[in-house]
C-alpha cells in the first residue's frame, strides 16, 4: 500500500486494560498453565508487561480498580473470593514508577475514586507521577457507590457524630448521590483541577541564587474551595508537572456519564457488543462536546475488546477452545450479579429468565440485550449463557481469528461506530499482550491504520494522544479556563 | 582487630533520612553547585540514590513528609516557598517501587499520617508495597495537626454540616487532639493492624485447580471497627504480604510519644544534641517496653545526625566552610518558627531572646536548651544563632571530621546513650551519601561495629533489623495479639 493510501485512513490507538487482580475480565484462567496473572505480586511481572506494551507502541497501560469486592451473587463475598474475581486487589498507583523507569513513551492510566480520596493528596500523587513519568500519567475518574466499598471506606466520615442527625444525613447523602452525582464529581474533580492548573505559575520556579529565591511566592496562589462536603484552603504543593492535569479518562455512556464526558473527558472507554448500537452514543457525546465548543474529534473513544489471536483462524479457534476449558461459570455469575444487582443464585443455571417475570425486568432486559443482540440471535436467556459470555472478556465484545480477521473486525468498529481505538483486555497474561504485539500490530501497520512510532517518542501521554506539542489541556477544554497562565 | 574483638562490640545500623523536597534539613544548599537535591523531580535521581545506599548497606531509605507548608515565620507561607523549605513536596510513596526494582536488600520507610488517610486505602498501599518490595517497607506513623495541613485536607470533613454544631465540634476536636492524641493514633493504627494481621490467613491462598478455589473464603475474616471517627466493615483485600504489618517507625520522646513507642514502635527516631540528655529518655522507653513484656533491645533507636566528612579533619572543616557559604539564615528562622510556634520575625536577628520575657518561655527555653547546652556554652540566645544551628542539619546534631573522628563520635553516642544506629541527613545530595559510603562505612567496618553484609540479603526490612527469619511482628509485640494464625 502506498504512503498516500496509508495516510487517508483513520489511525487507531491501542490501550491495554488490566487490573491489579488475578483474573479481571477472564475469571478462571489462573488455572490455565499459560496464564501468569497470579504473578502480579511480583514487581518483575509489571516491568515485563510494560516493556511488551511499549514494544507494541500501546498508547497507555490502564489499571482499573475496585475496593469493595463483588458481593451480590448468593449475597456473599465468598464466591468472588474463592474464584479470585476482583479479589485480591492491590493498589494500582504503586507499580507505575517502576514501569516508568523501564519505558520512555508508554502512558499509564490509573483509576481513582473521587468519593474516597482527599483531593489534595490525590492531586499530589498524580502530579508526582506526572513528574516522574515525564508527563505520561492519566486519571480514570470514577465514583464508587457500592455498599461494600463504602463500608470499607468508613462512609460515616461524613455523618455527624450526633446520632439524632445520622438518619437525616444518610438520607441526604443518598439523595445527593442520586440527583447530583455529576455535581459531586465536578466538585471533587474541579478541586483537583484548580490545584493542578491554577495554583502555581509555570514560571514560578526561578532558582535565582542571588536573591535566594527558589520559587517566587508571588506566583503561587492559595486555592480556596468551600464545598458542601469538602473545604480546602492551601496552595498546591507540587511545582507544575509536564501535563499539569493528568490526561483524563472516563468510562460510560449513561446520560450523566455522557454529559460529564463531553465536558471533561479526553478519552472515553465504551463497551458495545456491536458497532451499530454504539454509534449513536458516540455521535451524541461528540455533539455535546461540540456544543461546548470542543473539537469533537479531540475526544478519543476506546471500545473495550478482548482479542483471541492465532496465526490462522483455525489456530485462534483452537486457542479459544483451550481457554473455554478454564473459564469460570461461577465467575461469570458473580460478575453478572455484581454488574446488574440481580442475584443469579436464585435461578437454576439453565432456567429461562423472562424479564417480564422479574421485578427488575428493565435492568435484566438491558443487561441481556447488551449480551444477546440481533447478530447473535436472542435464544433463551439463562444464567449459564450470561455467565459463559461474561467469563471471557467481561462485558466487552470478543474477536477471535487471524490477524487479518481481527483487523477486519477492528476496521468495522472504526467505520461503523466512529471509535478512535480499542481498550484491549487480556485473556492470558502476558501471552495475550505478546500475541497482539507480534501478530496484530504488524497487520495494522501494513494496513496504514496504526502508527509506526509514537506521535512524540519520549513525550507526554497527552502529546501521544493529541499530537506533539499538546502536553497541556487543549484551549477548548473546560479545564483550560482554570489555567494559571491563561492571562 | 580479631573477629572476637569485632563481635564483642554493638553493631550499629545506618538509616538514610530524606524528604521529597529540595532542601529538607539544609535550606539554601540548592545554591551550592555540589548539590543536586532539586533533581528530585527526575526518577533517575531516586534510582541512583537507592543504589548508593544499598552499596553502603543502609538498613533503609526513609522519606519524611509534610503537606501544609511552614507558615509561622512572618505569619506567611511565602518565606518557606521562596527558599524552598519543605516546598515543593511530592508524594513519598511514589518513587518506592522504582527504587525497589533496582535494589535487593535496602529497606524503605514512608511517613504517612493517621489523621488524613483512610485506614483501608493506607493499609492496601502499604501491603502492595510490601509485596512489590518483597517485604522491605516500613511505616513512620505520624499525626498531622498543624493548621495549614488541616486546611489543605479539609478538616471540616469531620464537622457536622449543621452550622450550629460546628463550633462545639471544633472545640471537641481540639480537646480530643490535646487529651487523646495517643488514643486517636491507636484507633487508626489498630484498624490498619487488624486489616494486615487479622483478616486473611497465611494459608488462605490455596490455588486449588480441581475445586476452582484460588482463596479459601473460610480463611478470610471481615474486620468490623466501630470507632468514634471511623467505621469499617470489610475483609482486607490484599493477600498476606511478606511482613504483613510494615516495619513500624516512630519519632519523638514526649511522654505520649514514649508510651506509644514502647507499645508499638520497632524503630524510634530520636534527636538529642548530646548523648547525656538522650540517655535517660531511651532508658525510659526501653523500660516501658520491658514492662509490657517486650525485649527492650528489640526496639532500635536511631539518633538523627548530619555528618560532614572529609578524608582528614582539615578537609572536613574546609567542606563545612564551603557549606556555610550557602546556608540559609532565613531558612533556619522559618524552621525554628515552625517547630516552636514562635514567630522569630518579631525579633531583630541579633536581639537577645530571654525566655522569661516571652509568654511562651517554656517552649523557648526548651527549644534553646536543646540547641545550646552545657557542652556548647549557653551564650546569648538570638534568632541568628538559632537559625545558624538549624539551617545545617535541622534540629539534629552535626558531626564534622575525618572518618576516624566521626566514627569516634558515633561510638560515643552508642556508649553513652545506648542508641542502635543513626538516622543520617544529607547536606549535599547525593554527595553526602557517597561520602558516607566511601569514607565512613569502611572505617566502621574495620572497627567491627558495622555489618559487612545485611542480616538477610534479599530479605525483609524486619529481618534485617531483627535478624534473619523475623519477617513478621515479634511474638512479644502488641500487634502480635491480632495475628490471624496465632491460634
TrEMBL record, chains A, B:
Domain Luciferase-like: 30-415
GO molecular function: monooxygenase activity; oxidoreductase activity, acting on paired donors, with incorporation or reduction of molecular oxygen
Pfam families per the UniProt record, alphabetical: Bac_luciferase
SUPFAM superfamilies: Bacterial luciferase-like (SSF51679)
Transmembrane feature ranges: none
UniProt xrefs under InterPro entries: Diverse_substr_monoxygenases (IPR051260), Luciferase-like_dom (IPR011251), Luciferase-like_sf (IPR036661), NTA_MOA (IPR016215)
Family: Belongs to the NtaA/SnaA/DszA monooxygenase family.
The protein, known as: Luciferase-like domain-containing protein
Amino acid at each position: 500500500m502506498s504512503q498516500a493510501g496509508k495516510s487517508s485512513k483513520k489511525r487507531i490507538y491501542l490501550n491495554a486494560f488490566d487490573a491489579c487482580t488475578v483474573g479481571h475480565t477472564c475469571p478462571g484462567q489462573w488455572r490455565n498453565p499459560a496464564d501468569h496473572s497470579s504473578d502480579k505480586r511480583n514487581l518483575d511481572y509489571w516491568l515485563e508487561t510494560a516493556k511488551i506494551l511499549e514494544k507494541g507502541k500501546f498508547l497507555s497501560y490502564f489499571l482499573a480498580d475496585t475496593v469493595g469486592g463483588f458481593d451480590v451473587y448468593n449475597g456473599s463475598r465468598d464466591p468472588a473470593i474463592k474464584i479470585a474475581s476482583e479479589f485480591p486487589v492491590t493498589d494500582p498507583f504503586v507499580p507505575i514508577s517502576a514501569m516508568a523507569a523501564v519505558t520512555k513513551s508508554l502512558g499509564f492510566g490509573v483509576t481513582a475514586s473521587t468519593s474516597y480520596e482527599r483531593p489534595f493528596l490525590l492531586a499530589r500523587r498524580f502530579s508526582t507521577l506526572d513528574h516522574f513519568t515525564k508527563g505520561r500519567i492519566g486519571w480514570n475518574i470514577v465514583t464508587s457507590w457500592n455498599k461494600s466499598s463504602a463500608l470499607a471506606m468508613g462512609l460515616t466520615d461524613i455523618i455527624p457524630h450526633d446520632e439524632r442527625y445520622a438518619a437525616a444525613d444518610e438520607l441526604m447523602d443518598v439523595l445527593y448521590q442520586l440527583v447530583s452525582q455529576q455535581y459531586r464529581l465536578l466538585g471533587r474533580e474541579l478541586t483537583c483541577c484548580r490545584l493542578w492548573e491554577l495554583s502555581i505559575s509555570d514560571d514560578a520556579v526561578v532558582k535565582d541564587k542571588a536573591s535566594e529565591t527558589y520559587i517566587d511566592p508571588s506566583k503561587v496562589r492559595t486555592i480556596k474551595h468551600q464545598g458542601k462536603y469538602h473545604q480546602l484552603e492551601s496552595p498546591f504543593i507540587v511545582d507544575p508537572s509536564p501535563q499539569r492535569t493528568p490526561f483524563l479518562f472516563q468510562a460510560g455512556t449513561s446520560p450523566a456519564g455522557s454529559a460529564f464526558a463531553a465536558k471533561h473527558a479526553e478519552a472515553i472507554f465504551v463497551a458495545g457488543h456491536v458497532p451499530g448500537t454504539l454509534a449513536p452514543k458516540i455521535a451524541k457525546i461528540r455533539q455535546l462536546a461540540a456544543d461546548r465548543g470542543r473539537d469533537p474529534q479531540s475526544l478519543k473513544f476506546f471500545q473495550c475488546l478482548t482479542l483471541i489471536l492465532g496465526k490462522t483462524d483455525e489456530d485462534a479457534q483452537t486457542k479459544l477452545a483451550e481457554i473455554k476449558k478454564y473459564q469460570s461459570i461461577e465467575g461469570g455469575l458473580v460478575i453478572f450479579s455484581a454488574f446488574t444487582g440481580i442475584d443469579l443464585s436464585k435461578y437454576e443455571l439453565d432456567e429461562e429468565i423472562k424479564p417480564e417475570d422479574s421485578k427488575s425486568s428493565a435492568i435484566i432486559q438491558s443487561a441481556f440485550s447488551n449480551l444477546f443482540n440481533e447478530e447473535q440471535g436472542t435464544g433463551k436467556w439463562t444464567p449459564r449463557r450470561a455467565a459463559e459470555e461474561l467469563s471471557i472478556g467481561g462485558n466487552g465484545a470478543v474477536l477471535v481469528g487471524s490477524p487479518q480477521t481481527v483487523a477486519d473486525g477492528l476496521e468495522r468498529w472504526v467505520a461503523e461506530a466512529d471509535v478512535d481505538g480499542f481498550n484491549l483486555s487480556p485473556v492470558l497474561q502476558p501471552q495475550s499482550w505478546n500475541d497482539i504485539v507480534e501478530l496484530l500490530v504488524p497487520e495494522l501497520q501494513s494496513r496504514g491504520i496504526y502508527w509506526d512510532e509514537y506521535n512524540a517518542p519520549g513525550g507526554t501521554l497527552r502529546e501521544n494522544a493529541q499530537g506533539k506539542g499538546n502536553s497541556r489541556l487543549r484551549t477548548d477544554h473546560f479545564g483550560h479556563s482554570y489555567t494559571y497562565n491563561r492571562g
